[in-house]
Write a structure and sequence with these properties.
The structure is a single chain. Helices cover 29% and strands 37% of the residues. By secondary structure, it is of the alpha+beta class. It has 2 domains: 60 residues; 122 residues, Galactose-binding domain-like (Jelly Rolls, Sandwich), CATH 2.60.120.260.
Length: 187
């Protein structure tokens, strides 16, 4: 082998090695760049997810609730022949001793109307107690009524039913609509 062949052979080995090194370096650079971009995107998505969850739970408290009616209920009254309109929930001998509050949202439709609604509990022993909720608002409003306000009930261990009643003498207009939503008991 001549010197020239040896130099060419060494040059070829050196150039092939440097090209492979450049390719490996470029591959590593691409890999690190992809990992970095993926990490940044993942951190951003996690941050958005956490921010959304915190904003959703910010107004919630840690009360335990027994939901009776999660969907909105329309109480449509027309007092031409009728004298009252009611929405009744059967409680099936439910024990409410551990619960302290009845909670729900309500609104009326007619801004001219002045509506008072009677809320009534009846237990299986035929004890009955009522509470009047005055001035149902035009926009959704959350109501929390302490069960202690239903004073004539002595036994909350076997409840029969819960009624929401609109009576003719407790409204200004003879026709109207009251909506109830998210009816539940809180501990």
């Amino acid at each position: 082998m001549e010197k020239k062949d040896i130099y060419e052979h060494l040059a070829k080995i050196y150039l092939d090695a440097s090209i492979k090194r450049k390719n490996k370096t470029q591959e590593h650079t691409k890999l690190f760049r992809n990992l970095f971009v993926t990490s940044v995107v993942l951190i951003f998505v996690m941050g958005v997810f956490l921010a959304f969850n915190l904003s959703q739970t910010k107004g919630l408290n840690s009360q335990t609730a027994l939901v009776l009616q999660p969907d909105a209920v329309k109480l449509n009254f027309h007092f031409d022949p009728a004298k009252k309109e009611l929405y009744s929930i059967s409680l099936n001998s439910l024990n409410l001793n551990k619960y302290k509050t009845l909670a729900f949202s309500a609104k009326k439709v007619n801004y001219k109307d002045n509506i008072a609604m009677r809320i009534e509990f009846i237990n299986t022993f035929k004890e009955q107690s009522e509470f009047y909720l005055k001035n149902i608002p035009l926009k959704w409003q959350e109501f929390k009524i302490d069960l202690a306000k239903f004073k004539t009930l002595s036994n909350w261990s076997e409840m029969f039913k819960l009624d929401f009643v609109v009576e003719e003498w407790n409204v200004k207009e003879k026709k109207g609509v009251v909506y109830l939503d998210n009816i539940r008991f809180l501990k």
